[in-house]
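# step 3/5: fold
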Amino acid sequence: MPAPTTNSLPDSKTRILESARAELNSQGILGLRVSEVAKNADTSITLIYRYFTDRDGLLARVLGDMYDEFRLNFQNKVNQWLAITDEITIEQFVCLMPNPAEETKHARDFRLQVLATSLENPELHKRIKKITQETHEWMTSAIETSRHKLPEQDRNFDTRFLTVFMFNVMFVFYDLVDDKISADDYRAMLANQIRSSALISS
């Protein structure tokens, strides 16, 4: 069952979630203080704990929601494009994929921090695992149902390459090296690797 939207929640809970999100954006995960969340939401720490049990419960809800929004925005962009496109190329498809030269460092850092936090937060880990499984199922389905739109010579690539690539490359290296790959070079490299996966899996 999907989490209720903030519009359907009691006003106090909505204020808490919005306050916690603002606190996360300004102070980061480690800097989030429940007292500040309560103060800015014009409510009490007691009420926050009534809704979310403890700080970890609050983090699990807010970080899970933010992580899911990232996933849904990506899925919607891909779904909308595929729905109006009758013929596609590998190069066009990879343009839809996250690109290290175009994604902000803040977005990369956020995903890594959420994943790291989930290792110590069972509730968040459960939520992230569910989101990831749903994303994997969606991506596999999107690839298989769109394969016929590709040129015939490009249809036999291994679906696992894209799904594994999607979930294992977090672009951390991009912030650690001076010789950064350009957006165009990254897309060309990815397109070549997708085509090569057909040879590996055959």
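# step 4/5: annotate
The chain has a mean pLDDT of 85.
# step 5/5: archive (pending)
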